[in-house]
Amino acid sequence: MTSVVTLFAQAVSLAATNYSVDVPMRAPPTRPAFADEFDGAIDSSRWRFDTTRNREGWANHEQQYYAADRRENARIDKGALVIEARREALRSEADWGGQGYSSAKLVSRQALGYGFYEVRAKLPCGRGTWPAIWLLPQTGNWPDMGEIDLMEMVGWQPYVVHATLHTAAFNHKLGTQRGAETRVASACTAYHRYQLDWQPHSITLGVDGHGYMRVRDDQPGGHAAWPFTVPYQLILNLAVGGDWGGVKGIDDAALPQRLSVDYVRYWRAP
User: Fold this and answer.
1) Cα separation values, 39 from 35, 49, 118, 149, 157, Å
2) What whole-number distance in Å separates Cα of residue 256 and Cα of residue 84?
3) Percent residues over pLDDT 90 in the chain
4) Angstrom distance (rounded) from CA 197 to CA 214
5) Please, which residues have CB within 8 angstroms of residue 262's CB and are 6 or more apart in sequence?
6) Mean pLDDT along residues 82-93
7) Of 62, 84, 118, 147, which one is the catalytic site residue?
8) Taking phi first (over 0 means left), then psi (-120 to 50 degrees means alpha), and beta for anything else, what does residue 222 get?
9) In the annotation, is 152 catalytic?
10) Which residue among 62, 84, 118, 152 is the active-site one?
11) Other beta carbons less than 10 A from residue 114's beta carbon
12) How does residue 15 score in pLDDT terms, banded at 50, 70 and 90?
């Protein structure tokens, strides 16, 4: 039987602190090429709901059902997108896979590429929550396709945000993933600007104008080391439980919990 200590060690290994930097970041002063200020209703021309793995279950042993266009789980409230995780089993849904929690996952319809990204968000801190702002390409197999985790936080470790890259040669299954973490003391009570500067041969991630992770295209391996050469889609979601988020259990009494997003802005690289 796997011990709690072993599970905790495995969960901690999903994070990475090996590419820390301390550099300034600044959004361009020009008009964004893509933006959503979340006024009115969720814009279906900009976003789609991802429900593809509800029946079979989501990756990392996560325990949520992702609802499609259900106000209880995703809505615009006071000028912000709210993604809400709830303790409920949506048995009446045709694709329900036995999950005991509901939430939502939004994916940008437009694939974005090199440039500067800024997502102003307020995070949940309930134990068992796992909010994420991240990017994946439209096609390919993980981890060959690459993954950019602009921001992740797990509720059992509140106020610590993580930035991570995954590729075929550098990923958490191999223990070689590249990333860093930083403390944001008011992550759950105030909005902060989570930022990504994606250039052809470097990726910098930060918060509130402070870059705390940078990875350069300086390792051998070609595509296995640096697949970040095609446009990716931006993903906003709030998972529940899982190999990392749920390593210390889920506090049902803390639910519902919300990931609130004030805006998403993207400036294309010149």
Assistant:
1) 11, 18, 17, 26, 32
2) 7
3) 92
4) 9
5) 37, 38, 79, 80, 120, 121, 122, 191
6) 98
7) 147
8) left
9) yes
10) 152
11) 15
12) confident
Report how far residue 261's alpha carbon sits from residue 240's, in angstroms, rounded to the nearest whole number. Answer: 18
Query: Omega before 28 cis (within 30°)?
Result: no
Residue 2's pLDDT is what? Answer: 41
**pLDDT reported for residue 183:** 98
What pLDDT does 25 receive? 98
Per-residue pLDDT tens for 89-116?
999 999 999 999 999 999 999 999 999 9
Asked if 115 and 266 count as a contact pair (C-beta separation under 8 A), the reply is yes
72 flagged as catalytic: no
Spatial contact of 106 and 47, defined as CB atoms under 8 Å apart? yes
For the record, the structure tokens of 25 come out as: 């970041």
Rama region for 125: left / alpha / beta (φ>0; ψ in -120 to 50; rest): alpha
Residue in 131, 109, 96, 129 with CA at minimum distance from that of residue 36: 109
**Cβ(125)–Cβ(157) below 8 Å:** no
Rg value, the chain, Cα: 18
pLDDT, the chain, mean: 95
